[in-house]
Structure formats: C-alpha cells, structure tokens
Protein 1
Amino acid sequence: MKKYIDFKLRSVVVLGLGILLFSGCERDLSDDVRFATFNTNPDIFTDDPVGLTDEFFESFDPATGANPEGFGTDNDVAFEGSSSIRIDVPAPDDPDGSFIGGIFRDRGEGRDLTGFDALTFYARGSTTATIGEVGFGNDFGENKFVVLAQNIRLSTDWRKVIIPIPDPSKLVQERGMFSFSAGSQSTNGFGFTFWIDELRFEKLGTIAQAQPSILGGNEGRFPTTVGGSLTIGQLQQTFNLESGINQTVIPAPSYFNFKSSDPNVAFVSELGEVTVVNTGTTEISASLAGVRAEGGILVESSATAQIISIFSDLFADVPVDNFNGFFENQTTLGGVVNENGNDIIQYTDLNFVSINFFSEENRIDASEMTTLNLQIRVDEAVDPGDFIRLELNNFLNGVESGSSFTIASSELIANEFVDFSIPLSSFEGLTDRSGLGLLFFVSDGTISSISVDNIFFSVE
C-alpha cells in the first residue's frame, strides 16, 4: 500500500553565524563571541498587528483567483480586547476572485521561534464552515519551513485553534508569521465571514506523541534507471493535543532528515529529492526531530526498467484525453481531486468509468511492458461479492479489442489504498497492446465509491 504526492520544493538557506572579534589576546574567547539573535516576540495580532510589515495582509496572486478585497479588521467583534481580524470569503463567481488567502510577514529580519511549540489563535465563523488551510513559514521568499494544517472547522462560537510546530529548533529566523487560504467549498458556494483574534506563538507544553510520516506512512517501490529522480511527498506529522484530539500538519521537507541506505545507488537531498546515480537497490527513510518517520521507498535501479505512466506523482505522465469518459448508461461521477495536497482520481456512484487516451496521438504502445500497476481505495465498506473489474481496450487499424481482469472483494480494503501489480498476461485475449486507448473500472454497482492513484505500466 503506497501513496505519493508531489510536494513543492523549497530552497536552501544558510544562516551566517557572524564574525568573531578579538579585542585582546588575554581575554577569554567566550567573552567576545556574539551570535546573531532575533526578535522573540510571540504576538502576531492582538488588537493590532504586532511587528508586521506595513501591508499587514499580503494577498496571494490575484492571477490565481485570489481575492484581495475581503480582508480587514473589525472593531465590533473580538474574542478579547477591542478588535479582531475579519475575513470575508467570496462566492466562486465574485469578480474580484473566487477565494481569499495570503500571508503576514515580520517587518524585521525574522523572529526566533525556537522557544515555542505551537501557533495558536481563536476563530469563529458567521456560519459553520471550513478554512481550507492555515499555517506559517510562507514569506513569499524561500519558504523553507512552511507548516500547513488543512480543513479547520469553524463554529459560530469562538474556538481555539492549535497548529503544532514540527521542530521548533529549525525556526531561528522566521519571517512567515501566518498564512491562510479559504474558499466556499464547505458552504456549497455561499460566501461567509470568519474572524481571527489573539494570534500568536505559544509554549503550551502539552503537545505530545509526535508521529511523523512520509508517503502517508506507506512503503513504496520506485523501479527506475540511472538518472531517474522523484520528490518524496505526502509529508505529515500528527500530534496529540491536551484535549485528546490528534492534529495533523503538513511540514515542508526541510523539517525532515532524509537518509539513503546506499548513497552510491541513490542519494536524497534536504528537500526530499531522490536522485538515482547507479544500479542497485537502496531504502530511503526519514526522521523528524529524532523520531523515525513511518513510510519509505525502496529504490530499484536497473538497466532495463521501463515505465509508461498514466497518472502518478512518481513519473512524467503520458497525455490523457480525460479521466472520466461519461459513456452512455454510465452513472459514475468524479475525476481528479486534491486530497491532502496530493492529486488522486476519485469516483462516486460507480457502475463503470473509463480513463481515456484513445485519441490517435495519445494511444499507448505497451508492447514491451509486462505489468499494470495501480492503487485502489474503496471509500466505503467492502462486502462479499463486491468486485472491481479492470478492462483494457486496444485500437489497431480501426479494430477495437479488449480483455479484463477482476479484483475480488477479498483483495480490497475499505478506506485504505491497496497496491496492485497485475501481469498484463492476466488480461487473456489482449494479444496486441500496441495501441491501448481505454482503461475501464467496472463494479456493476457493487461498489459505488473508489479512489485510484499511481497508474503506470512497467517492465518487471
């Protein structure tokens, strides 16, 4: 069972330690060494912004749909004191932009946050809704230590939100004080308002049981050749809060310490970029703040490995016409969606559905391939008699031929991705694979909701 996402790369920054000055050979060195120190003020917004740039709110790029007009302060609503931050989330058809989001930056050289273990604030909504993302570390610059928490639930009452810091020792000079992004997905397209107050970093001392993971805690294989590369994704860390609730955050790769068991085969950078330099095998693992992360990758590099990827964050994908053919008599809805920062294919009301690459220029020549690889998650209970039938159709000189392979209920797990490597010889009757154009998923209504990821052909 494997999951991968493509996490955006961050740049590397080197912190200078300053220059040692000597005023006399008889004085002890420790009397003269002065390391750079930065502001340790934890407050970001109380009744006013604290130590932020003059812009206060810096919007994400309007060219991406960000609405810069819905941000302000409210002197009539506050959790404590006399004012709060007010954010008006637009409807999708708002001419100024379909979502609102941006950052707050420290006006100085950055703050030393090593003495804190969480970003906290109080929030309430005009209705029950969800803030898509909140976090810190984004300064529209290097963004090396970004942390995000997703789908923050709002109530019409004030509630405290806690975003744990994965490793405070990394934050010796941080400018990105806060970031957020919100749309109207949780309100069926209706705009709403939410307020934030008492925004600061804190040392709570009650955040425990850190559980970091890569690849969603799953083990994966990366068959490749010399020169192959990938970026390790689906990075997470889960903490237990004093309330007993588990809070998961998405840390930037630079919080992790990545390791290759054989760097002569493949090495991994601080940013989670794996580069394959020789044939052989190596295991890629990671830790965060001294805690071993769940999940890892077995890199298998050989001279003969070949890949044709339809949908995967691991490899460059071939062109696809669409991920839902919407055939006659089909009830299936869905297509590509983003889940926790990772693109997956999600289908609902499934009876049958196809991924289409049948236009002549997009057909796949899989004649030299031996295996169809994919991951399937059944997003409901799995009952005896349930099945998913895979069908491959080939187009040659105007003639369509095809064959199928059935995955029984005993091989499926509810709400978990299962890894399948199916020999193409199992598709009996598919004697020609030089012009593959359709991949069907058929349940005949026995299963109505599935998610699919990492679909590729390979030579095993």
Protein 2
Amino acid sequence: MDKLGYGNQPYIVLKHSDIKREHLHIISLRIDETGRKINDSYEVARSMKICKELEDEFNLVPLKKGERQEEIPIRKIDYKAGDIKHQVGNITKAVMNHFYFQSFGEYRTILEQFNITAEEIKGKHNGILYSVTDDKGNKTGRPFKSSLFGKETGYEALQKHYEQSKLAVGKKNIREQLRPVIAQTMRQANNINDFRLLLKKKSIGVIFRQNEAGRIYGVTFIDYPNRAVLNGSRLGKEFSANVFNELFNSMQKQNVTLKQTGKRQPDINPDSVLGSVFGLLDIPQLSGSDYEEDVFIREQEYEAKRRRLKAKKKGRRI
C-alpha cells in the first residue's frame, strides 16, 4: 500500500472464504487528505512488480500463468455464509468452466448437486433464471437473472457450450470409457442404492428421476474424472431410464423372493428381463424419435416370449 501511494489512506480488508480459494479484497480512497488524486499511472504494472518483490521476500509460491480461474465447486450453497447471489455466480461460472454437458437438462442436473436449479425463458429475448433450492429440490428465495453474472452463464453462452462439449466428449472418447464401467456395475449391483454406491467408488455419480409411484423416467451420469455430464440415453439405449426401471424392478422381485423362500426366482434375472441388454454393447446405437417405440417393441417381444415359455411348461399352447 505504501509503494502504491496508499500508505496514509484509510482502507478496508474483506476476506472471501465462500469458495475453495480464499482471497482478500482491499478497498481504499483515491483522494488524499488535501483533495488531490493519488497517482494511478501504470498501476497494474507497478502492482505486479510489488507482488514479485513480496514473493521473493517471503518465499511465496508464485501464481503460474493460466492458474487464475474459477475453482471447481466443492460444496452446496451455504445460507449461513450469506451473499447468496455471489455464491450462485461462483458455482454457475465454475460449472460452465469445468464440466462438459450437451443439453440444458444435463446442465441443470449438475447445478442441482449444489442446490441450484435453472429455468429457460424463451420469447423475444431468451434468457436463464437461476434459483436456489433446499435439499429436497424446492426453490427458496427470489430467482436471479443470468445477466447479473455476465454473459458467460447466459442463454447464448450455453448454446455454444453444448457444441463445444459435444466435440470434446467425442474427441476424448468419454462415452466409450463410461459404457463398460456402467454395464459391469449393473451386473454387480443388488439394488438401486447398491448401484449408486458402486459407481461412487469409481468416481461416477448417478441421478435417477422418479415419479410418485417410484417409476424411473430419467437418468443422468456424472463422470467426475472426465468432468462430463451425460444422460443415460446419450450413452445408448441400454442405459436409458426404461432399462434401469426394469432392471431394479427385477432386482426387487428377486430380493423379495429370496427373503420369503430363501431361494432365488429361477425365471427372473437382470439379463433376461432386459432381453440380454448387455449384449447390445457391440451393436450400433440408434437415436431419435423411434427410441421409445423401439424400447416398447422389445418389451412386448420379451413379454410374449415369457408367456410362451410359461405355457410350454404347463403343457399347453397359446
């Protein structure tokens, strides 16, 4: 402060600790006691020189080029810390800077892990509204327009991010890395919670969206090592919500039978219920509007086959 000419000026020091990188802000006055403006010529260059001298004097670790960026968010919104707007801005910017996602739904899913949700506003002027939520996903407080945080978390920025993420995910073969890991975990798990835990040990998060009846209608995977957020159907039909719904239903039936009789049900297992879904891994994946129809047809074919086998066992034909 002395070397910059502010040694005799009043000042306030503010400490920010709401993100992993704690830092200080120093606020002072540019006008001295005589009413004259303090010289601010080449202030940036002078400041950098002074910082270098301090690094040498106190043996500090210098900041390398490119290191001054938003930290990856590591915790949810903290109401007690206050300044909610600032926290929302930090988290949304960090997610944009550090995660790949190819749709608004995938973006919203990763935000929800930090107790933030987002809403698209479309019309004459497209925009994004961000809201803070509680642990149950209920909105609390007033929403924040994306413009409050700058253009980098707005509607246009998101559209560009989707395309960039698509190229990055393809270039890094992220889907190809995830699919066998998830498929193996589907074989190993005994129930939905077991599935989550096994994936967590592999640094992969999974979020299931379920209706009031418990039916799974959406699934999203978060590959933390690769920082990628992918809906299950983006990995392939064998990782869609319908497939997981059938898989966990069959596991539940198996567990009930095992508890009641001490024996596993011979006619039901994950592979048979899914129509040997893991064998699809080497088949080119389809996408588009025919996807749900294709799943429905497979389910009907399996059900017809099951009925024929059941009838055959009873010695009659259908």
Protein 3
Amino acid sequence: MRPFLAHPFDDDKLHEECGVFGVIGMADAANFVALGLHALQHRGQEAGGIVTYDPSAGFCSERRFGYVRDSFTKAAVMATLPGSIGIGHVRYSTSGTKGATAMRDVQPFFGEFSMGGSAIAHNGNITNAISLRKELIKRGSIFQSSSDSECIIHLMARSMGRTIPDRFEEALRKVEGAFSVVAMTRTKLMGVRDPLGVRPLVLGKLGDGWALSSETCALDIIGAEFVREIEPGEMVVISAEHGVQSHFPFRRMKPRSCIFEHVYFSRPDSILGGRSVYETRRQIGVELAREAPVEADLVCPVPDSGTPAAIGYSQESGIPYAMGIIRNQYMGRTFIEPTEQIRNMGVRLKLNVNRALIKGKRVILVDDSVVRGTTSRKIKDMILDAGAAEVHFRIASPPTAWPCFYGVDTPERSKLLAATMTEAEMCEWIGIDSLKFISLDGLYRAAGEAKGRDNTSPQYCDACFSGEYPVTPSDMIEKGFEMKVAE
C-alpha cells in the first residue's frame, strides 16, 4: 500500500503535471537540484527524481514517490548523487492514472547512446505521442514506461546526429504539442521550449554555474540571478568550455504561452513573461470587481490561490478584505488512510470557516477557477453553515469548458461544469446568490494586454477557455475528440 494519498480537495483543481530544474558547474549539484525541485513542488507532488553525473561514479539516479522534502533531504540519499551537473523533475500522475503512477514513469529518463549517456526531464505533453510510440515500437523500440516523454529518448536513439545535442534537436523536431525540456550529457546542460512557448523555462546564473528552471522562484531558493526566459522555439546548450550557446532549430511562430500559468499554476513570487505573477493575479481581481460588482460586506479568498485576486477585488471595490476561510497549513497530501467517514469530511480537512467573522455577513468568495464544481458546493455549505447572509462567488478565470492537452491534468469535457451548464445554471447548481467569471478580455487586460484578447491572433494559449487549440491534439482527434468548429 502506498502512503502518498491525494486529498479530495485536490480532485477539483487543475494540476500542472510537472516541473523541471537543472544545474551545471556547481559542486554537489544534486543539493541545488533538490532545492530547486522543492521550490517547484506545487507543479508536481506525486513523485520526483534527480540524475547527476560524476567522472568517477558515472551517471547516478534516484527516483522517489512523495514530496522532495521527504525524499531528497537525507544525507545517505544525496551521497548517491555526486557530480557538478544534474537535472531533476517533479510530477503529478496524468489524467486517467491518478494515484496509479509506477516508478517506471518517474522522470528524469536516461538513455545510453554510442557517444555517451543522456538524461531528460520534460514539462508539457506530446500530442502525437501515441502515433510516435506505435511507429517506434514497430521499428523495434522497447518502451520502459507509459510516459509520452520517453518517446524523446527513443527518437534520440534512432537519430543519426553526430552529437547528443544534435540528436536531441532532431528528436524534438518530430514531436508535436508542448514541451519545456531540460537534458544533460556528461558535460552539457541543455534546455529547449516548443515553438509556441506554451510551458515556461528560465535561465539563471550562480557564480560560474548555470541553472534552468520551470520558474524563477526556484532560482531564488538557490540564490541564482535570473538572467532571462528561454525564448519560444529556442534551444540552449550550456558547457564549462563554451558557456551558453543558443540557436533556434524550429520554424519561428507567434508565441502562445499558457495564460493559466498566470491564473493558477505558477507561484505568485515568480516572474512570468516579464510580469510579476502576484501582480497579474491582483489585477485580475481589479478587473473582476469592475466587471462583476455586487453589494457585500466582505471579500474573502478561497485559500491560497484566490488570495491575490481577492485583494485586488477588495481594493477596487472598497469592500473590506477578510480571511473568512482558514487553511490548515499542516494538512499536506500525506494523511491517514481515507475511510468513508474521512472522505465525507471533504474540504473541511483542509479549510475551515472563520465563523465569528462570517456570521450575518454578505460574503464575496474569490476563487481561481471552477472545474467540476464539487468543491465550490462544499465551500458554499461551510459558509452558510457558519451563518452567512449571502454567498457570492467571483472566479479569477473564465469558465473552464475545454480540456487541456498541453501538460495539464484536465477532466474529460463532459465532467467540466462549464461545458454542460450556463453561468446561471452553474450558479443554481452550486446554490449561491450570484456567480460571475472574469471575461477572457478581462483576463488578457490583467495579463498586460490593454486592448484585451486579439481574437484573430490570440496572444496566449487559452484553449481551456476558448476551445481554440494552437496545436492540433492529433492523438485525441484519433480517439474521437471533437474540436470546436470556428464560426
């Protein structure tokens, strides 16, 4: 029996499937990688892994289930990961395999080639992985995992490139979808983003060493200076001999980074697209207050992701901000075996209402999203049980009506509340006095686009809201998924 258990509250949230981190030119690289992964824990809490290289020990690998703090803080474990170069990965299990991740699916993946070994860690999703996998198996490849990321290793093995970076580049030219990848050889650290730049990747510097990370907050934890973002479609190869070498192996395209990174995925203390994630979320609350005002006594966030937007809503509306819901910071995801009685407690294990504050008040609850809506109903019940006079929900993202195929664990479309109900129907189903989502234009304005969304050429990937997919999800189309038809 595995002790690492998902909590019911987490089942009604969208999750990034992973975060990546890598360093080169740093003594005891594994320690820096572990710290970086700890800062990226919000991007993946089910499992993690680290690979390093040391001239005397060769390539070394450790992959574990659970939190980084529980797996990669023990001296005995870290001693097995010597070297001055290393990469790491944290992950959630993908949709359909929740809670059933096998150790063979935990990254980084490693391959031994004629010119030496290489390890890769991938954030995103390869949308043509099924067809690639079938073709590779037909040609003799033997897969060790169920992860789409392993396709990259097999494509590298079949490449005729003279160097590992050449093979890495050739492999990525054959994949579709979203990918931010960090990879390593014995002497080089590599990073690449897909041509649309859907998933983030940044470059940092610490002394004579370099770091690649999914977010800037992980650079902060190791004391590295944020240098810049890796550009969409860019590949960097970093070595002690040549420093950072950059080139663009893909056809240039207009970037379409994921706008939900600004809403929820990224940590609020990260910098994304040159903007403070916290400030964007606060501005979302400002826009939401302008678009959907309501008379009330308190503005309360649904912790913790709704907090910046609630602050912005309060500042713009003039309605006092208050911590009407308190989060149990020590709950975590590891807990006692969930009996039926425990399951029925639902979100009460993580959240509790500040009854003295709520009683008799008209309350605006600000949350980041509504996915299935089950958690919203439970939170509403808690607020009403505490004696609230009215409950109004304000949501810091547009209705999530379409699944994501670019590295986010999204339910099937039929299970997304916004795919089957109007806003008014959702409000009635949840059982609240009012429900309003920020508009797509409002979200774009909060993210720095003063004129809102350019409908002819959107500035971000917003497929989960609009149904407009910048990269055709080939595998899902083959499975029968019906894309939105352009009007």
